[in-house]
Amino acid sequence: MNKTNPEVAPERQEVPAKGSLTAKGVKIRDEKEIDALSSRGYGTVEKKALLLAFYEALYLVGRGLLDVRDRKGRRMGFRELLQQFEGMHGNAWSQYLVYRDLRSRGYVAREGFGEGVDFRVYERGEYSKDAAKYLVLSVQEGKPVAVSDLISAMKQSQGSKKELILAVINRRGEIVYYSIGQLTMQQ
Predict the structure, then answer these.
(1) Is residue 121 part of a domain?
(2) What are the φ/ψ torsions at residue 129 (nearest 5 degrees)?
(3) DSSP strand pairing (163-169 vs 134-140)
(4) Do residues 96 and 162 both lie within one domain?
(5) Confidence of residue 12 (pLDDT cuts 50, 70, 90)
(6) Pair 137, 165 in one domain
(7) Averaged pLDDT for residues 160-166
């Protein structure tokens, strides 16, 4: 995985949203920016502000759609924001890669619920119209995953009537998705 080469932002006519770094993520306070981003499936609205998870903020910064400032008002680039995220979450880079890939495929990915599930993923064009269809668990190639973690995620997906998807990130940062289901043996 190459952490030193962030996405190159394409030229945009849009003015980037302005956000400030907090301990939980990046906060946006402008009402128009809140409406524009939340309607596209970004962040969580709380107390007249939009709170973006770090992976959401990284994605928007990488695309040139977000300008993040730290507590002292200094502009934070992609690398600085990633370093903040890595300090809080050991799987930060992997989580960002999966989020970026899902978004680039046209899916809306929201924070997963419960331990072990990284994202709830909505079918294309279904965000805010229907419930999420998938739960995504991301793992890195070569890193062991406890079977109990997979069973727990499977039970969670079955309990919420969602399909469990395993996102496997290989050593080059490419992602392969596998649908996980319960095996039933017939006699």
Answers:
(1) yes
(2) -100, -30
(3) parallel
(4) yes
(5) very low
(6) yes
(7) 90
Contact 61, 68 (CB under 8 A): yes
Domain span at 168: 92-180
Looking at residues 75-89, what average pLDDT do you find? Answer: 91
pLDDT digits 0-9 by tens, 37-60: 998 999 999 889 999 999 999 999
Answer yes or no: are the C-beta atoms of 163 and 117 closer than 8 Å.
Answer: no
Q: Structurally, how many domains does the chain consist of?
A: 2
Tell me whether residue 25 is in a domain.
yes
Measured between alpha carbons, how far is 183 from 187 in angstroms, rounded to an integer? 13
Tell me, what's the pLDDT at 11? 41
Q: What is the CA radius of gyration of the chain?
A: 17
Q: Listing from the earlier edge strand, what are the strands of the sheet with 66-69? A: 44-46, 49-52, 26-28, 17-21, 66-69, 75-76
pTM summary value: 0.84
